[in-house]
Structure formats: structure tokens, C-alpha cells
Specification:
The structure holds 2 protein chains of 2 kinds. Chain A is mainly β. Chain A contains no helices and 11 strands. In chain A, strands 2, 4, 5, 6, 9, 10 and 11 form a 7-stranded mixed beta sheet that branches. In chain A, a hairpin with a 4-residue loop joins β7 and β8. Chain B is mainly beta. Chain B is built from no helices and 11 strands. In chain B, β4 and β5 form a beta hairpin. The chains are: A mainly beta, B mainly beta.
């Protein structure tokens, strides 16, 4: 069975950096794209960007370009989402999800809750 | 970026009702649209892709259709477990985008 397992809850202060992870199992990791989706409290879904696990080809939404970095370590079947300087407005649940082609997302992680507060 | 406008933003229905949710794209996306269901505290779940193809394991009471840039998700007979928020998602053009969501109350 296909799983995406995400890292746990993070509580950080404004200005701090953070790297959250998403580990795939049960499928050929390097043959799929993995995307990241943000959900702010009580709000909808926002597509942040996507990475091809085989060669780390990455695409970003203009809304998130320069604000986050998506990377992958295929040796451990893990994709990352990195924040360099957190803001309170980064408080959200961040989902990773496997994409069929580079398209719709068929398998989702459980989400990582990030809380940024002074 | 392609905008997806979902309507209504919320609706109340009874068990057994036929429910329709609309999603209008701001430009032609062909059939490159998916629908997801999200229950409180859970990750989204893929229901439909390619505008009308049912994902494996999804009950047949869910259906999707398209006419031009207007997409529709239909639940033919609403069940108690269908209480959730539904999102459309276009995958025709980067950046990929989601609709604002439709909350279905039973």
C-alpha cells in the first residue's frame, strides 16, 4: 500500500527556519512527482509547488516562489519543504501529496501542522 | 493563473438528496479537473479526475461532468458520511489551482 508519512507538529517563533518532511513508501518513489499544499486555519487549499523525485525538477506557484524551497532526497524516499524566515502568516497545515504525472494528487500525507507564534 | 470559482460555498441537504456542486474555470482547461473530498481534521481524498473518471474505491453515487469550462460534481443520493467539504482542482496549467470549496451539511 502507498503511504506518505509527514513529520510532526512544529511550534516556532517568527524569524526561525524550518524544514518539514514527507516520506514515501509502497511505490517507486523516483517515478512520481510530489506536491505541497497549504491549508490555513479554516480556509481552502493552496497549491504551493511540486517536485519530481527522480531528478528534483521543481515548479513553484508564483505565490510561494522565493518564500519556500522544495527539495528531495531520493536515497531515503523523502521530500522536504523548507522555510527560511517564518512569519505568523505561515501558520497552517501543510500537506504533501503524490501526483499522477505532474497532475492531480492521488495519495495524500496526513499533514504537518506548523504554528508560528511569538 | 487559472481561477476556479466554486458554487455554492455551502449547502444544506438531507440524506437521499441529489446534490450538485459547480466549478467554473476562468479559461479552457479541457478535462484537466479533479474533485476532492475533505472531512474535518483529515487530508483531502481524491474522488474524480479527468473531469468524470471515478477514482478506484469511490462509491458510484459520485459523478462528474463537464460542459465547456463548467464542471459539475454530483452526489446522486447523499449519505451521512458525505458530510464534508469538496474542492475542485485544475491540473491543466501551472500554477495548479484549487477552487474555494463547497461545504456540505447534512
Amino acid at each position: 500500500e502507498v503511504y506518505l508519512v509527514q513529520s510532526g507538529v512544529e511550534v516556532k517563533k517568527p524569524g526561525e527556519s524550518l524544514k518539514i518532511s514527507c516520506k514515501g513508501s509502497g511505490y517507486r518513489f523516483t517515478s512520481y512527482w510530489i506536491g505541497w499544499v497549504r491549508q490555513m486555519p479554516g480556509k481552502g487549499l493552496e497549491w504551493m509547488g511540486i517536485i519530481y523525485a527522480g531528478d528534483s525538477d521543481t515548479r513553484y506557484s508564483p505565490s510561494f516562489q522565493g518564500q519556500v524551497t522544495i527539495s528531495a532526497d531520493k536515497s531515503i524516499s523523502t521530500v522536504y519543504l523548507q522555510f527560511n524566515s517564518l512569519k505568523a502568516s505561515d501558520t497552517a497545515i501543510y500537506y504533501c501529496a503524490r501526483a499522477r504525472g505532474s497532475d492531480y494528487m492521488d495519495v495524500w500525507g496526513e499533514g504537518t501542522t506548523v504554528i508560528v507564534s511569538s | 493563473a487559472i481561477q476556479l470559482t466554486q458554487s455554492p460555498s455551502s449547502l444544506s441537504a438531507s440524506v437521499g438528496d441529489r446534490v450538485t456542486i459547480s466549478c467554473r474555470a476562468s479559461q479552457d482547461i479541457g478535462r484537466a479537473l479533479a474533485w476532492y473530498q475533505q472531512k474535518p481534521g483529515k487530508a483531502p481524498k481524491l474522488l474524480i479526475y479527468g473531469a468524470s473518471t471515478l477514482e478506484s474505491g469511490v462509491p458510484s453515487r459520485f459523478g462528474g461532468s463537464v460542459s465547456g469550462t463548467d464542471f459539475t460534481l454530483t452526489i446522486s443520493s447523499l449519505q451521512p458520511e458525505d458530510f464534508a467539504t469538496y474542492f475542485c482542482h485544475q491540473f491543466n496549467t501551472y500554477p495548479l489551482t484549487f477552487g474555494g470549496g463547497t461545504k456540505v451539511d447534512i
